[in-house]
Amino acid sequence: MDQIQHKYVEANGLNHHVAEVGTGQSVVVFLHGFPEIWYSWRHQMIAVANAGYRAIAPDWRGYGLSDPPPEPEKASFVCITIILSLSCYSQVFIVGKDFGVRPAYYFALLYPERVLGVATLGIPFVPPGPVTYNKYLPEGFYFSRWEEPGRAEADFGRLDAKTVVRNVYILFSKTEIPIAREDQEIMDMVESSTPLPPWFTEEDLEAYGALYEKSGFRTALKVPYRSFEEEFNLPDTKVEAPSLLIMGEKDYCFKFPGMEDYIRSGQVKFFVPNLEITYVPEGTHFVQEQFPDKVNELLLTFLRKHR
Questions:
Q1: SUPFAM superfamilies from the xrefs (predicted)?
Q2: What digits encode the pLDDT tens for the residues 36-58?
Q3: Which residues are catalytic?
């Protein structure tokens, strides 16, 4: 971890934090999801740097060490453009996790000549359009609760940032979609005595907690949970770049209505024809932290194939 360097890129009056390691000519950019930050890529960054690549992992605006926008409620997917951290590089590999998958693939659609390959974890490419999962799931679906302005803020506000991250990691490491009863909030779904996943240490939790104490959750709740209805002017919805999807077999996202069939039937390849799909048998939604050696092996094989 000590070899990872930290810098800030100024854009639109905000400082954006970027973690960086390696001196190779080939650049790999890692895009985190929620409740993650650059730190969630710590294992992969070291691995690709040791293999001769340059690894870059930004914190999105309002996440981790990056400045929050002046009005977090107006933050959007359009605003979290990865051009900020890629502007110095003509060609890159992009690795996206969770909601980081959307900007990863959208960048590949907008700037195909600059993308050598796209690897995603936990979420496949989904074409732009309304998110309809909440129409098929109970009212207590975590997504529905968190997209309601003020509700998650009140729920999270009862706890310190470290406990919020702890609870989300526990919930999102399960095989079932987090759905609260009508008489409880999402944070109430985790007992204080519930242990952390064995691969997530107290030291890791301290790192996350400290960074979310700085950033809070205002921007993180707006993007992604209250921004999925945005419209994008994409030139196409077919990604031609070589792509890799890594899915943990125990990832709760398989339980989203239609998701498992969309992936396993190969329907996703209509939009990403050069897609390879790999499954990690015991992997959860945090497969890159749970099984870092396996994920590193899969990523490096993909990178070397398309370098």
A1: alpha/beta-Hydrolases
A2: 999 999 999 999 999 999 999 99
A3: 98, 225, 285
